[in-house]
């Protein structure tokens, strides 16, 4: 058949040669899988076929494909080939006649037409008799006849001539399906070299193994059907805190976010056959960080998607698994009123905008694992990790523009379908508490010693050393002033007073009171101002004991205040975004996750 094609091409001129050059020559063989969705409970056309998926192996046998020009300037070519169809899997409730066809095959001689400009062809008729068959079409009660099983196919050869995508169009029309519910994909069979078989052996066995692996994945599996709303299940799977800088107002961390979504059957085939550089035909928009210090302060790494299989209600579910890592510097508004007894919720704020028919679902079962992993890797000695929570909010973008109502949804699932899509916000909140012990020793301890040593000035003799008493008291104030400048280095510039600032101010008032007491005693000890009823030595002892009592009473009261007021109030802090509220325990239990993440 090749010689007449060459002769007709020469007569047609250069145009004929260009037409035939788009088709491989010789035409190779292809092996692949084909799936059909049946629903006997809903469609009369599927009666006795059961409810579920039929999985067929479909082979275009190598060396059987013939392309011929039709002449007369026709843009189409005639095509004929032999195809082998083998039943690999079927629904459990299929009739006994169909179950008897399991692992049986039929080889038909096909005829159709191909386009001369595009690599598309249609196979729409079969020969009067099959080439070979182990399927008994004559058995009584057989729901599929030979012409019905054959039907009509539309096929597309990829540009690299390695893949054929096919749709069983006659079954789509007969059963009133979507094209995705009767689709298949076939891969080129490399027969190797007949001259150098050792250097270039056939890879038919490798292809068969890969197709068998795809068969195991797809048998009874739930996959995505085009036209259905999509769901993306996401959750943080890793979190590390590298640095917390309350003075600069930021912290350095890294977070890993997992995103999982259902794949099409074509995606499964592509992954099994060509896993290197595999990319699903659809990918969700990944999260972007909204509280990065600047545009270059957070680095993002998106790993190549991988295939995962989970079980949902004893049925496998084939998913694409996407992992995105974020590492950098995040801005945080620190609340320092209770410094150094403060508790800080550190937020990693993220958002993702998806199409209108994409629902984002937050998986909340892994929060304990996330917190446990963070505790094991915790290396920041100044801070203590309290807990890790994940809060989320979904809103329609129409709602954000004021055209509808913003709704926080259970499990992160957005229910409304708007033309502008949905926005998902996820806040990963790491709550930490500052270790106050070092500050108590280095700052509060020194302030207490300064105040207590100031009382020692009262033992200096009244009569001879009055100037020294006043001088020593002012020296203590200057010492406290110098130390307060050192203390200020622990804090950023704030518009309010912290607990440490209040303690320092109280120490200034305390030393000021001592200066006034010393001045009054010095006034009483002078000969001109002496009053019989006012003994300066008695007042000297009284002020010394009073100051000590005030100092220790203030210390005891401060301990009670910090223990029972300040610390409990700090521990009750919530995430500062009022629109992102954590789920209650009841709502968490009701979140619908269609697969088990235990593995």
Which key terms come to mind for this protein?
599 residues; alpha+beta; eight-stranded antiparallel beta barrel; 14 helices; 20 strands; 30% strand; disordered C terminus
What does this structure look like?
The protein is 31% helix and 30% strand. Strand 11 and strand 12 form a beta hairpin. Strands 1-2-4-5-6-8-9-10 form an 8-stranded antiparallel barrel. Strands 11, 12, 14, 15, 16 and 18 form a 6-stranded mixed beta sheet that branches. The chain is built from 14 helices and 20 strands. The longest helix is centred in the last third of the chain and has 36 residues, at 536-571.
List the helices and strands and how they pair.
Blueprint (H helix, E strand, L loop, with lengths): L1 H11 L1 H7 L9 E10 L11 E10 L5 E4 L6 E14 L6 H4 L5 E11 L4 E7 L5 E2 L12 H5 L2 E5 L5 E5 L1 H7 L7 E6 L15 H15 L11 E16 L4 E13 L2 H9 L14 E2 L8 E5 L3 E7 L2 E17 L11 E12 L3 E5 L4 H10 L6 E14 H4 L21 E13 L2 H19 L10 H23 L10 H27 L10 H36 L13 H6 L9
Parallel strand pairs: 11-18
Antiparallel strand pairs: 1-2, 1-10, 2-4, 3-4, 4-5, 5-6, 5-7, 6-8, 8-9, 9-10, 11-12, 12-16, 13-17, 14-16, 15-16, 17-20, 19-20
Q: In summary, what is this structure?
A:
With 599 residues, this protein is of the alpha+beta class.
Number of strands: 20
CA-to-CA gap between the ends? 57 Å
* Strand composition percent: 25-35%
Helical content band: 25-40%
Largest sheet: 8 strands, antiparallel, barrel
Strand order within the widest sheet?
1-2-4-5-6-8-9-10
Contiguous uncertain segments of 5+ residues: 1-20, 401-419, 580-599
Radius of gyration computed on alpha carbons: 40 Å
Number of helices: 14
CA-based shape: rod-shaped
What class do helices, strands and sheet pairing give?
alpha+beta
Mean pLDDT: 80
């Amino acid at each position: 058949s090749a010689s007449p094609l060459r002769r007709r091409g020469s007569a047609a001129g250069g145009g004929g040669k260009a037409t035939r050059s788009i088709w491989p020559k010789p035409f190779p063989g292809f092996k692949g899988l084909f799936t059909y969705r049946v629903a006997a409970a809903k469609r009369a056309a599927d009666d006795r076929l059961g409810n579920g998926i039929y999985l067929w192996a479909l082979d275009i046998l190598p060396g059987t494909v013939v392309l011929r020009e039709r002449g007369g300037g026709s843009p189409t070519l005639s095509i004929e080939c032999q195809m082998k169809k083998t039943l690999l899997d079927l629904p459990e409730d299929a009739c006994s006649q169909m179950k008897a066809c399991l692992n049986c095959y039929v080889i038909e001689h096909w005829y159709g037409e191909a386009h001369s400009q595009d690599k598309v062809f249609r196979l729409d008729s079969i020969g009067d008799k099959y080439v070979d068959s182990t399927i008994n079409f004559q058995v009584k009660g057989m729901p599929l006849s030979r012409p019905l099983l054959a039907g009509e196919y539309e096929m597309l050869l990829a540009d690299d001539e390695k893949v054929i995508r096919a749709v069983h169009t006659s079954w789509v029309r007969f059963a009133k399906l979507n094209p995705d519910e009767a689709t298949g994909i076939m891969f080129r069979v490399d027969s190797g070299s007949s001259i150098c078989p050792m250097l270039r052996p056939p890879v038919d066995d490798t292809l068969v193994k890969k197709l068998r692996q795809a068969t195991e994945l797809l048998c009874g599996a739930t996959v995505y059907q085009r036209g259905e709303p999509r769901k993306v299940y996401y959750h943080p799977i890793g979190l590390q805190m590298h640095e917390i800088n309350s003075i600069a107002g930021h912290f350095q961390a890294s977070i890993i976010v997992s995103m999982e979504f259902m794949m099409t059957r074509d995606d499964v085939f592509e992954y099994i056959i060509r896993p290197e550089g595999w990319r699903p035909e659809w990918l969700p928009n990944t999260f972007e960080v909204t509280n990065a210090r600047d545009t270059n302060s957070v680095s993002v790494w998106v790993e190549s998607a991988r295939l995962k299989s989970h079980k949902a209600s004893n049925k496998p579910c084939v998913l694409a698994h996407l992992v995105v890592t974020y590492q950098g510097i995040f801005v945080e508004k620190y609340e320092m009123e209770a410094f150094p007894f403060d508790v800080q919720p550190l937020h990693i704020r993220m958002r993702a905008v998806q199409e209108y028919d994409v629902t984002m679902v937050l998986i909340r079962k892994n929060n304990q694992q996330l917190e446990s992993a963070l505790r094991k890797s915790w290396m920041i000695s100044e801070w203590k990790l309290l807990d890790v929570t994940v809060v989320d909010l979904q809103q329609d973008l129409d709602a954000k523009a004021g055209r509808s109502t913003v709704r926080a949804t259970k499990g992160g699932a957005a229910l409304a379908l708007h033309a502008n899509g949905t926005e998902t916000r996820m806040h990963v909140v790491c709550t930490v508490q500052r270790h106050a012990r070092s500050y108590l020793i280095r700052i509060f301890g020194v302030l207490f010693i300064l105040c207590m040593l100031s009382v020692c000035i009262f033992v200096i003799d009244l009569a001879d050393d009055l100037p020294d008493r006043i001088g020593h008291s002012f020296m203590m104030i200057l010492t406290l002033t110098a130390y307060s400048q050192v203390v200020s280095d622990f804090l950023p510039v704030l518009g309010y007073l912290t607990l440490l600032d209040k303690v320092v101010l109280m120490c200034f008032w305390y030393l000021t009171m001592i200066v006034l007491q010393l001045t009054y005693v010095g006034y009483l000890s002078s000969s001109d101002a002496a009053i019989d009823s006012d003994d300066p030595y008695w007042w000297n002892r009284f002020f010394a004991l009073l100051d000590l009592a005030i100092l220790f009473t203030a210390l005891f009261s401060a301990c009670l205040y910090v223990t029972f007021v300040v610390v409990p109030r700090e521990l009750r802090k919530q995430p500062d975004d009022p629109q992102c509220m954590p789920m209650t325990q009841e709502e968490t239990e009701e979140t619908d996750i269609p697969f088990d993440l235990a593995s």
